[in-house]
Write a structure and sequence with these properties.
This protein is an alpha/beta fold. It is built from 15 helices and 15 strands. The strands form two sheets. Strands 14-13-12-11-7-10-9-8-15 form a nine-stranded mixed beta sheet. Strands 3-2-1-4-5-6 form a six-stranded parallel beta sheet, with helices on both faces. The model has no long low-confidence stretch (mean pLDDT 95).
Length: 427
């Protein structure tokens, strides 16, 4: 019997929702977009036009969608972090399964509330920990599960956030102030990495967490001498400062366009002059990086102790020359280490031969495609299988499997705020 496509409503029509919705364009026989909920009328109308959505299936909010008669199988929730729980629970209540952007909650109380709601209403929630689906990480997972490197002793992960990404998202942009976005730097940027650590450890559960970090760079005292408050308005260093809005955004207008130029979405083809005027006005992206109202850390280290004595560490360092994610896993029979951005990892096994050395195999997963190591569409396809009740991959990011990593992040931030205290993990 021919399968019907899973039908979906986009809730929050931002960049990430539209990335997952691409599956409907590539595989319409499996996935279809039939509704949208977004408070921005222009964005709402643009999505409706793109997917031929009738007016009666366009809504101003998730709450309005939840009050209407259910007309789709699932919702793709790509709203901002702080409203994930309040927008998801009403949808679960009326019968939607949900593909939910990470982080799925911004504190432990909300996280437990959402997990309980999914169980109460018998709905399926999958969290967008898309890096699990990157061939780089899914390949490493398969080798660990096969027992190739033995029992895992230690996992080290690192994320180096490029200076222009740091500037855009965490110094000037949507995630620069936890009082406004309700997410810490670790939660917004590195819950991916903590999730990978927990997922790669499999059934071995974490028992304790400790963490240190602060904001060293992006403070007024580090502003260059004579720096202004707005790069394109009153700063004589606009052509030379490392974090000049002109250098980062005007000289490279396409690099972070979906964030920086969102207020120009109503203009069909905005000019450079339009963009310059925006940065001169009330756009946060035009503010001096050293004088913005950011309050999140620019580096943080996390230490995790697991059952049986295995350990894990994660380092987030913002303001690097280039963005990179690296991993190094040591097992009782060998090691796996590599860099996501190159798409290559090395399996180094202890050689039991008389030479008593090691045998190395380099695996090249490729890096072409999306910004998450070619994992975005893999996640969307797995979600379709999950909803249909079909077999899912090793990467499946059900909310139950995603809860532990969120909890570690919350405890790590608590530890950091208290000077590195050891926090027990209570599942």
């Amino acid at each position: 019997m021919e399968k019907k496509p899973v039908t979906a409503v986009i809730v929050g029509g931002g960049h990430r929702s539209l990335v997952y919705a691409q599956l409907a364009e590539i595989e319409p026989e499996n996935f279809r977009i039939v509704g949208v909920a977004d408070p921005d009328i222009q964005r709402r109308e643009s999505i409706a036009k793109k997917f031929d959505i009738p007016k009666e299936h366009c809504f101003e909010s998730a709450q309005a969608l939840a009050k209407a008669e259910k007309f789709a199988d699932v919702a793709i929730n790509g709203t901002m972090d702080q409203i994930h729980v309040e927008t998801t629970i009403p949808l679960l209540r009326v019968g939607y399964d949900v593909l939910l952007e990470k982080p799925f909650a911004v504190n432990e109380k909300e996280a437990r509330e959402l997990v309980a709601a999914a169980e109460k209403y018998g709905r399926k929630v999958m969290v967008c920990f898309v890096l699990r689906y990157a061939p780089f990480y899914s390949g490493i997972k398969k080798r660990i599960v096969s027992g190739e490197i033995g029992d895992v002793i230690n996992i080290q992960t690192n994320e180096f956030v490029s200076y222009h990404h740091m500037s855009t998202s965490h110094v000037r942009g949507k995630w620069n102030n936890s009082e406004r976005c309700f997410s810490s730097m670790l939660l917004a940027k590195c819950c991916h990495d903590i999730d990978l650590m927990v997922w790669l450890m499999g059934d071995v559960k974490p028992v304790a967490v400790s963490s240190f970090g602060c904001n060293m760079q992006f403070v007024p005292g580090n502003a260059p001498e004579n720096a202004g408050t707005k790069c394109l308005v009153d700063c004589p260093l606009v052509d030379e400062c490392l974090y000049s809005a002109k250098r980062i955004y005007i000289d490279h207008p396409d690099r972070w366009s979906f964030y920086v130029w969102d207020k120009l979405e109503n203009i069909e083809n905005p000019t450079i002059e339009d963009k310059i005027n925006l940065l001169k006005g009330d756009s946060p992206y035009g503010i001096c990086a050293y004088k913005s109202d950011n309050n999140v850390v620019d580096h943080q280290s996390v230490m995790v102790n697991f059952e049986g004595g295995a350990t894990g560490t994660h380092n987030m360092v913002g303001g690097a020359s280039t963005g990179r994610r690296t991993i190094h896993i040591t097992g009782t029979k060998g090691e796996i280490f590599g860099e996501l951005d190159s798409g290559k990892y090395t399996v180094s096994l202890i050689d039991p031969s008389p030479d008593c050395e090691h045998k190395d195999t380099v695996v090249d997963c490729g890096t072409e495609g999306d910004s998450h190591g070619n994992g975005d569409l893999g996640l969307a396809r797995d979600f379709v299988n999950y909803v249909r009740g079909e077999k899912t991959s090793l990467s499946c990011t059900s909310i139950d499997s995603s809860f532990i990593s969120h909890l570690i992040v919350f405890l790590a931030d608590k530890s950091m705020e208290n000077g590195g205290t050891v926090e027990a993990v209570e599942l």
